[in-house]
Design brief:
By secondary structure, the chain is of the alpha+beta class. The chain is 48% helix and 11% strand. Bound molecules: heme C (5 copies). The site of one heme C (HEC) has 24 residues, from helix 5, helix 6 and helix 7.
């Protein structure tokens, strides 16, 4: 017998004969439906529009759907083997297998079942996958579903970028960014499932450059000009004496005459640096490349030490690193709450007590709540019984505010605490600008990155308790 007819006699006909059973037919339908869905999503992905950039979609498209495909495929021989065993027991295996004949109602019936079941499976799977993909792009998936994202998920809704999806800043554009994120996302998901993830989770160098994220919405050289910053702090004395600092920041940008100036203008050229930690707090080497190609290198140590670490090109996120999820400091959080009267400045020593209570160590939010509430109440009851008598609501409100501040900034289970995620704008609470502008990053010839106060701003008043100047400006 020639090869093809023999193949048909010995394989195709028995396969169709045994395959005509419920399990195999359903298996065939699952396989074909998942194949259609997969191909559909691959096409959407390849031709761009509507393709999601979320890394976890990889789990759906690369694991779950192919898994279902294989499962359906495996059901086919299982069903066939079961049917053969059943027929063999009943001694009903025919000597010659029936021909493939579309007029044969039994055969036609099998084909009908597969077609109908494929269609139903396709609709179910397609809808489920589409909804899964859409869901994974939401902020709630990134920031809330995954408990290890709790710090960022908590800080994000109150940030200026709460309308910007996590994926906009965390996933670079193009196929490379997508693949990169997919590999990373899968790795992280496995870490979380194994309950074996880094704590705290620090920014790694996986963040795409600003050109692929921030600059989709912002223009790097927009003229911003001068900004006035007024900062109020309260003292640790009994009266919580307020003091104010007022500075004028020339943020600059590209002016109408085409010239770059100010803080933005100064860094729009090409500046590279080498840091020794993931948050880039320790910088030993900075290099500025002029438009004509000359490179000026600034170092704060000998060359060998300076060249060790992570090399980066400076961009927006080197100063604005906490625009979407910023963590506060105890002092600043208490100051802003007191300014808004959420913590009453009328309570004696409230600034000092609040900061101390926030800085204490608590193992859980529940413990923080009871300890803070009790401690503040106890303080006024024993030290200022009169104040305690007449200011119950204010004391309770202050305690509640402190508990809220603590819960938004400290996450013991992830070892995230005050200062874990430094903010690089300014220099008050963290090194910030002074990571480079500290007077000790020098060129070989001794020129340093400028560091005197007037390099970056006009200090109009500093920790001023005399309100006259501010009153003159109408800022009381
Ligand atoms: C506007 C841009 C932007 C958005 C939107 C954004 N992030 Fe970030 N994210 C950043 C930047 C910039 C860093 C690096 C921070 C640094 O270097 O200190 C970062 C760092 C992180 C880190 C590392 C740990 C840390 O806090 O530094 C995590 C985790 C993270 N983001 C999660 C999220 C989640 C979850 C969302 C959505 C709820 C989100 N991000 C939205 C810009 C963004
Ligand atoms: C999807 C668009 C979008 C992306 C992406 C985006 N921003 Fe913004 N950003 C905005 C909008 C809109 C505002 C104004 C928000 C407001 O005033 O409430 C803003 C405001 C800001 C501000 C001023 C307010 C503040 O928080 O200080 C800074 C700084 C800023 N963005 C930096 C960045 C940086 C850095 C990145 C990249 C890590 C980035 N943005 C990514 C849309 C975006
Ligand atoms: C060298 C540090 C530095 C770099 C780099 C930098 N900025 Fe800024 N930017 C500042 C400072 C300082 C301010 C003013 C202080 C503030 O807003 O807290 C500011 C202010 C802003 C504002 C707020 C303007 C307003 O009206 O409130 C926006 C928006 C902004 N920057 C966007 C960007 C973008 C986009 C990039 C990247 C192209 C960038 N910045 C790079 C330091 C920097
Ligand atoms: C990674 C290092 C680095 C960081 C961080 C940094 N700068 Fe700079 N900055 C430089 C370098 C390098 C120059 C160019 C110095 C030169 O040309 O001599 C510069 C120049 C400037 C200038 C222009 C000075 C002049 O007189 O020409 C200003 C203003 C400035 N920076 C402000 C800031 C502010 C504000 C911050 C923080 C928000 C900051 N820088 C953070 C590296 C840095
Ligand atoms: C390399 C730039 C740079 C240098 C040098 C610098 N500052 Fe600042 N400073 C800033 C920036 C940027 C801010 C704004 C921070 C913000 O937006 O919250 C700031 C904020 C301040 C504030 C406002 C309140 C606060 O504490 O945040 C005071 C006061 C101040 N600086 C004083 C000084 C004094 C005094 C010096 C000199 C010893 C100095 N600065 C040197 C960049 C600089």
């Amino acid at each position: 017998m020639p090869a093809f007819p023999r193949f048909r006699e010995q394989w195709v006909r028995p396969a169709l004969f045994f395959g005509n059973n419920f399990i195999s037919l359903i298996g065939g339908a699952i396989t074909s439906a998942s194949a259609f869905v997969l191909i559909g999503f691959w096409l959407v992905d390849a031709f761009g529009h509507g393709g999601s950039r979320n890394p976890y979609i990889g789990i759906l498209l690369d694991f779950l759907l192919p898994g279902l495909f294989l499962f359906g495929l495996a059901l086919i021989p299982v069903g066939m083997l079961l049917r053969r065993a059943q027929l063999r027991r009943a001694d009903k295996i025919p000597a010659a297998f029936p021909r493939i004949d579309f007029n044969d109602p039994v055969f036609r019936h099998g084909v009908d079942i597969v077609l109908v079941a494929t269609f139903i499976n396709f609709v179910i799977l397609g809808t489920a996958t589409y909804r899964g993909v859409a869901y994974m792009d939401t902020v709630s998936f990134c920031g809330q579903t995954c408990h290890v994202m709790a710090p960022e998920g908590t800080a994000y809704p109150v940030s200026t970028h709460s309308g910007v999806a996590c994926v906009e800043c965390h996933i670079g554009s193009g196929v490379a960014g997508y693949l990169h994120a997919k590999v990373n996302g899968t790795k992280q998901l496995i870490e979380v499932l194994r309950n074996h993830y880094p704590a705290p989770i620090m920014p790694n160098d996986m963040l795409p450059p600003a050109s692929q994220t921030c600059l989709h919405c912002h223009r790097a050289d927009t003229w911003i000009g001068d900004k006035i910053l007024l900062q109020t702090t309260f003292g640790d004395d009994e009266e919580n004496t307020p003091s104010r600092s007022l500075i004028l920041l020339p943020v600059g940008g590209r002016a109408l005459n085409g010239k770059l100036s100010g803080i933005h203008g100064a860094h729009l050229g090409h500046i590279e640096y080498i840091s020794t930690d993931s948050t880039h707090q320790t910088i030993h080497y900075v290099a500025k490349t002029e438009p004509n190609g000359t490179v000026t290198e600034f170092m704060d140590t000998d060359r060998r030490t300076a060249m060790k670490g992570i090399r980066r090109t400076m961009d927006c996120t080197d100063c604005h690193n906490r625009v979407a999820h910023s963590f506060d400091t105890p002092t600043h959080a208490v100051d802003t709450s007191m300014l808004a009267d959420a913590i009453s400045p009328k309570l004696p020593y409230i600034h000092q007590q609040s900061v101390a209570l926030l800085r204490a160590t608590y193992t859980s939010p529940a413990q923080a709540r009871t300890r803070i509430v009790d401690a503040l109440d106890h303080y006024y009851q024993t030290r200022y019984p009169q104040v305690w008598q007449s200011n119950q609501p204010q004391i309770a409100q202050a305690a509640a505010r402190l508990v809220a501040i603590w819960s938004q900034n400290v996450f013991p289970f992830l070892r995230v605490t005050w200062g874990t995620h430094p903010d690089n704008i300014g220099h008050d609470d963290y090194p910030g600008c002074t990571r480079c502008h500290d007077g000790s990053h020098n060129t070989a010839s001794g020129k340093s990155i400028p560091s005197d106060c007037s390099t970056c701003h006009n200090v109009l008043s500093i920790d001023d308790t005399n309100r006259k100047q501010l009153a003159d400006l109408g800022l009381q």
